Amino acid sequence: MNDYAVVLQHASMSAAEAHNKAAIFDRLREAAGEVGLSNAADFAFFVPGRIELFGKHTDYAGGRSLLCCVERGFCFLCWRRKDRKIRFLETANDRRIAEWELSSKTGIVDPHWALYPVTVSRRVCRNFPSARFGADVIFSSDLPRASGLSSSSAFVVGSFLALAAANDLSETEEYKQNLPDCEHLAAYLGAVENGSTFRSLEGDEGVGTLGGSEDHTAVLYSHAGQLSQYAFRPVRHERSIALPAGVSFVIASSGVAADKTGFAQGQYNRASQLARTVLDLWNQKRARNDKSLAAAVDSCIGAREQIRDLILESPGDPKALLARFEHFLRESYELVPEAGNALSLRDWARFGELAAQSQEAAECLLGNQIPETSFLARSARECGAYAASAFGAGFGGSVWALVPSGIMNQFVQSWGEAYRRKFPDYDRAAFFETGAGPAALSLDGNVYELRRRRPAPMREY
Fold first, then answer.
1. What is the DSSP secondary structure assignment for residue 38, as one 8-state letter?
2. Any residues with CB less than 8 A from the CB of 14 and at least 6 apart, and which?
């Protein structure tokens, strides 16, 4: 058995998916030889995508989410260099190579996917003055692209892990002072992506999206076989809930790309800006300096009513602001904790009802759904799923369904057929089963350690 398959199975990845990843790593090794690299990489990482069960557009406003990883993601092999050159090779699509220098001023580099590692390298150079070595990185992913599974944030995380390992960043004072634990690292990588300053680590333009750190937190610190409830700004683990035996997830990628650096970026950012406008109204009118919308809501008794009144008195677009605020309250304060409770009790009827409410709130209040994802969420229940909902940035992307294992094969076939009858033009749609997989893993046994946080004690809500 391939050594990487052994490590992945030891981390509780299913045997089938562990062997699939081992095959990807074998192909990466082959590509390494073709570009003159040693067969033995200095570092190897697996970085998964994630499922956001509940918590749509809550993290950047300080809300909470219920999360887990999928068993698909990015495989990275990394070689240290002795100069400042960085070279990323993608093996999935014509083996395209992006090359640039480690610099705080690096601009646009082709191909388009290079935006993510370029942004990471620019920020690493800016924030860690001792970083002076480039790297050769060969990677591939079995995640559907722009599907809401957080492929972009997983790419950011993997790019950082590669450059951090190549430069021993975890041994620097900047790292130790600013990133003392896992919550800080996840929040920092969210800041790398959105461009904001994190503690003393200066920001830049990022990749252009105004998101938070939910994706990076899930990708780095989820646990196999568990769902994790996190709150954000700051990142904090609230509880972990074991995924009950006898159920698994099916992911339906709609085939409608939700590219946060493309068409969907403006729509995604508008949801973030609306939440920020509500917070600004509160801080200005009440002479406060709350750092997030959740902090404002929690600041005093009656804050929710006061915020609603301020929205209705505002000169902008009070209808849109009120819908955004009500969605945030519903998703973060009601649906996330209630769903966790229902799941822990195996109350499938209640869990399904809550998922349907989350989907309806996304359609009616958040406004980030399209006919394809709405149909997938509704038809999944009709095909026998306990629960289903769209997730991720929205405006395309995917839907998760929680399904009894006994009907899995029948369900996947029925769900896929129903979708293709309704939307025959989407030949890029994909359906796959996954458990709650492990978080990002270092596979080479090298000194660079991915630090973990133990799950917090169970809390009742």
1. -
2. 71, 435, 437
- Give residue 32's identity as a one-letter amino acid code: A
pTM, whole model, 2 decimals? 0.94
| CA–CA dist 335, 65 (Å, integer) | 9
Tens digits of residue pLDDT in 396-432? 899 999 999 999 999 999 999 999 999 998 888 999 9
pLDDT of 192 > 60? The answer is yes
Query: What is the biggest distance separating any 2 CA atoms in the chain, rounded to whole angstroms?
Result: 66
Collect all residues with Cβ–Cβ distance below 8 Å to 22 and sequence separation of at least 6.
1, 2, 4, 5, 8
Q: Which two tokens stand for residue 298?
A: 């929690």
Residues 6+ apart with CB under 8 A from 3: 443
Cβ atoms of residues 264 and 258 within 8 Å: yes
What is the token pair recorded at 318?
A: 């009070």
Sequence letter at residue 121: S
Pairing relation of β-strands 43-54 and 64-80? antiparallel
Q: Hey, which bits of 118-234 come out as E strands? A: 135-141, 226-231
Q: Which of 41, 276, 60 is nearest to 166 (CA)?
A: 41
Angle (CA) 84-80-26 rounded to 5° is 130
**pLDDT at position 263:** 57
pLDDT-derived band at 349, boundaries 50, 70, 90: very high
